[in-house]
Amino acid sequence: LRLDEKVRVVVFKSEVKGVFCAGADLKERAQMDDAEVGHFVKRLRNLMDEIAALPVPTIAAIDGYALGGGLELALACDLRVAASSAKMGLIETTRGLLPGAGGTQRLPRCVGIGLAKELIFTGRQIDGQEAASMGLVNHTVPQNSEGDAAYQRALTLAKEILPQAPFAVKMGKLAINRGIEVDIASGMAIEGMCYAQNIPTRDRQEGMAAFREKRPPRFTGK
């Protein structure tokens, strides 16, 4: 996906009704020794980092349970849409663990330190409505009879992104992701570098031409 220039948006959904991702298989985990567990969780953390580093926008469609590593997967995405009945939580402390695939880092960056600490310390599960109220998800929707309301809303959101200039969207994502980790002066420098890369693109010229000619732009990603 990272190397496919035709990919404009990635939507993560589950093929299992009522479950987005239920997290680790604790029965499987119980068969591992300490070294194996450490290696396994490191691989999961690397996977989440790979997802977070995808150059195009990513959307998690949470139509059911997103628990432990399942919520960490959703947090690795840029945007999250949840059914109001979905259940989410970093429940690791209820199993003698702590989030190990990015949860302790991405949740506070998403909802703030105080709420993240409360959710992680208590292992509490929240529904889609609560998640929306704290900014954990971008949108919450009532579940439908097919059980894919969040996915349908995610597709609508993806279709809003698709007409926009692909390279500009990628640079916007890069500037946000890199800039949020540094002081604002450094962030401004990062934005400037990303903007400089966008200046010579054909899409920038097309955007201005379309504005002058009062027509929709036809972006190509070049």
UniProtKB/TrEMBL annotation:
<protein>
    <submittedName>
        <fullName>ECHD2 protein</fullName>
    </submittedName>
</protein>
<keyword id="KW-0456">Lyase</keyword>
<dbReference type="Pfam" id="PF00378">
    <property type="entry name" value="ECH_1"/>
</dbReference>
<dbReference type="GO" id="GO:0006635">
    <property type="term" value="P:fatty acid beta-oxidation"/>
</dbReference>
<dbReference type="InterPro" id="IPR001753">
    <property type="entry name" value="Enoyl-CoA_hydra/iso"/>
</dbReference>
<dbReference type="GO" id="GO:0004300">
    <property type="term" value="F:enoyl-CoA hydratase activity"/>
</dbReference>
<dbReference type="InterPro" id="IPR018376">
    <property type="entry name" value="Enoyl-CoA_hyd/isom_CS"/>
</dbReference>
<dbReference type="InterPro" id="IPR029045">
    <property type="entry name" value="ClpP/crotonase-like_dom_sf"/>
</dbReference>
<dbReference type="InterPro" id="IPR014748">
    <property type="entry name" value="Enoyl-CoA_hydra_C"/>
</dbReference>
<comment type="similarity">
    <text>Belongs to the enoyl-CoA hydratase/isomerase family.</text>
</comment>
<dbReference type="GO" id="GO:0005739">
    <property type="term" value="C:mitochondrion"/>
</dbReference>
